Amino acid sequence: MTAAIPDISFRGVSKRYGDVLAVDRVDLDLPKGAFVSLLGPSGCGKTTCLRMMAGFEQPSKGDVFIRGDNVTGVPAFKRPVNMVFQHYALFPHLNVGDNVSYGLRQRTPKPPREEIAKAVDEALSMVRLSGYGQRRTWELSGGQQQRVALARALINRPAVLLLDEPLAALDRKLRHDMQIELQNLQRNVGITFLLVTHDQEEALSMSDSVCIMKDGRLVQIGTPRELYDEPVNGYVADFVGKSNFFAGTAGRAHEGLIDVTLADGMKAAGRASKSTARPEQGSLVLVSVRPEQIRLVAATGDLPNGVAFRAEARVLNRIFLGEQTEYIVTHERLGDFMVRSPRQGNQATAFEIGDRVAVGWSPDAALILAKE
Ligand SMILES: Nc1ncnc2c1ncn2[C@@H]1O[C@H](COP(=O)(O)OP(=O)(O)OP(=O)(O)O)[C@@H](O)[C@H]1O
Ligand SMILES: [Mg+2]
Predict the structure, then answer these.
(1) What's the confidence (pLDDT) of residue 2?
(2) SS (H, E, C) 264-276
(3) Which of 6, 61, 173, 249 could serve as 14's disulfide partner, Cβ 3.0–4.6 Å?
């Protein structure tokens, strides 16, 4: 069986603007029908990647493939790809219907009027705006305008839709509604989606896979779960969810675990991430422990079985989160760290600010990651 040909592939793609290397040797495959997110801090090259996929920019190096064909150098209007821009702009002088049909009306030969009207109706119905065709754009809410921008891209029936932070301007509630709508839309229409976002929760909750970028490079690509449980380095662990990091030096490896000497000679052990090679003995590492993996008991209490690391600490702050309580505890040598404890019985919070506590974690919950 041959693997399906990806809708879009990058092979060694770089983009240079003068002194700035905006995208640096990126290899990437967008599987057909997938929902992929591109996540990374401002300026890391996300928009530039999208623009090269859409054909608005050409790579300085490397090749872009669409469904197996090398399209490097092929202009945007000849690619089966549509982009919804970071700062979407509807044409203010056109009503909703004319905004949506814009792409079709630019075609030569221009499709017949009835065909355009039918396509507009279909596109508006996909984004749940049936009957809004005659509205002026300023008569719409932010979310509705965003959906018009989507319909304007969908009417071209692209194989791939590139969405550059389409939800950034929306308030929390609307953003959440639109996230669900985007997911439904993608499932129903079967188009490959690439979504750029700043928002890690958005990326994790919506996508089949997530690409993490930093300084023009693709650091890791994986399912949300892979990125969370098996990050390649501290950057990914920090970017995807919350984690505590303790710097140390890798020691001996035994029985699948690695010993680490932390600050002031404290000892810990953990496992290497499955996504990367085991850190070498003597190398600088970060021990990464997720807040929900840290066990918290009274200073006089016993930690559960299987917990191999114990440190005495003091509660600095606590935040009630319903089913969980989030504590910030401080240790004289390890510094502050975050613990998330599930609610026990009817007790909303088990510890008060100032309480002496003991924290620990099992070696399986501690990831030993290379320090960059
Ligand atoms: N046309 C251009 N000319 C010169 N430099 C550019 C150009 N476009 C982008 N850059 C630079 O390339 C880098 C990547 O920019 P890009 O727009 O891809 O980032 P981004 O990840 O989309 O950021 P943001 O999250 O802020 O939108 C930045 O340093 C940016 O200043
Ligand atoms: Mg951008």
Answers:
(1) 53
(2) HHCEEEEEECCCC
(3) 61
